[in-house]
Design brief:
Radius of gyration: 15 Å
CATH class: Mainly Beta
Structural class: mainly beta
Mean pLDDT: 94
Largest sheet: 7 strands, mixed
CATH architecture: Beta Barrel
Helix content: under 10%
Distance between the termini: 10 Å
Number of domains: 1
Low-confidence stretches: none
Order of helices and strands: EEEEEEEEEEEHEE
Number of strands: 13
Length: 169
Amino acid sequence: MLTFRGLTLRCAIGRTGVTHAKQKREGDGKSPIGRYVFEWCALRPDRRPPMPRSQLPTIVLRRSDGWCDEATSLSYNRAVRLPVSISAEAMWRPDGLYDAVIGLSHNTAPRQRRMGSAIFFHLARPGLQATEGCVAIPRSAMRLILPFLSERTQMVILAPADSGRPKRV
């Protein structure tokens, strides 16, 4: 669960659950336990109705936007311009998961190879199917909370022992 300004919302997390941030590994399918700040927001401009703006630094997604997940690359866990010769995820997705996507501060400063990349807060698949390690919410919930998100907003991903307490934004 995710709580925000008194609301409790269902959310999706990693397909294999959660792990402590220091134990997070590239491709393990786990969401990293910890406290994270929202670093930036990216919105896909061709979707209608458009998503509301947040108070975060916001970029407009382009078809050529990608995110490097190749741990041996100097671009690991950074935005890249597609096509590239390294492994990178396309940010312009046909399934709409990244129509609104927010970068979480996991493994960004400093970056450590193989400690997990592309840990985002984004739109959920139908039925809140599990993610590859991100946190995801339905489009309607994102539309509701996006205008209130800023660089002061924090997300806390909790361990299973804390499962009675929701993840907080």
